[in-house]
Amino acid sequence: MNKIAILTGGGDAPGLNAVIRAAVKTAVQEYDCEVLGIRDGFEGLLDEGGVFPLTLEAVRGILPKGGTILGAANRGNPFARRVIRDGKEVIEDASADVITCIEALELDALIVVGGDGTLRIARDLYAHGVPVIGVPKTIDNDINGTEVTFGFDTAINMATEAIDRLHTTAEAHHRVMVLELMGRDAGFIALHAGVAGGADVILIPEIPFNFDAVCRKIHRRIAGGRPFSILAVAEGARPVGGQQVFRRAGDETFVARLGGIGQVVGMFIEKTCGVETRVTVLGHLQRGGSPTPFDRWLATRYGAAAVRAVAKGKSGCMVALRESKVIDIPLDEALAVPKRVDVTGDGVLTARNLGIAFGDEPA
Length: 363
Ligand code: F6P
Hints:
By secondary structure, this protein is α/β, with parallel strands linked by helices. The protein has ten helices and 15 strands.
């Protein structure tokens, strides 16, 4: 193993720098291998100055830092790249240029750290002969084949703290407090933070809800002498027979942006249930800041394991956590189906045992 490169794609997540640091330290110290950094996801392979040496010096002190020293781009798909031609914006397939650039670099492997979108690009490049190793990153925890992605733990810590803080105002003012949380089409953040924070209602995409069932739960609490309620609402939640709420539609290069369901639920509760309600959207606070010790630990293990996988001559795979061990699995397996909350699993069951409503309870 002589030379590897590393890039971070998609949205940032706490722990990216820990992966980069671990990969560089392992490659340089254990294998005497040169490491290149690629700026702003796959874009760096097409931009002048986008590829640069990643030395031990460059990764010193980055372990506790959020974001990524490499930059990230969640619109940088080389198979569908947005460019300006004759003053007009067009979508072009620039994958051949990216592959040519990677070949010229004579890499043993490209380590791609990203969520499902970025890992799909890695898988497609692998199909064109590019040696790749994936590292699963996302606060949403929606990548299959791994028990957990790094970034998720930091996000649920932040979300749980937000619920704790909302509790004080809810209790003092006898209000309903709605907290909208990220997660795209997966409800892991809302479920985990909702249980950890003691929410009364958790709405997730995997369990379409009835507005009336939510109101019944709030009224039952009021009747039982608890005149306040906390709702943890995943951004991808939707009512039975209804649609998800989007802030911006998607296209060939942009993923659609969810957001707004918290406001919809809050307005319904205030108008129809007649209970004073406030809505908070936690947004990117879930993604920013220093990673938790768990995310640093996991990201460091993923980064080192990715380099060990290259040294073993592996390619087209993704490092993953299974039964507390870091292993590697084929990228195809990881991307075959997205991971979603198991609605019959012990997480949801535990929440129900505790009396938390999901909005699907019969009258
Ligand atoms: O996938 C991570 C995530 O934070 C989602 O939870 C959220 O829907 C999305 O990214 C937000 O993306 P952006 O930063 O482009 O608004």
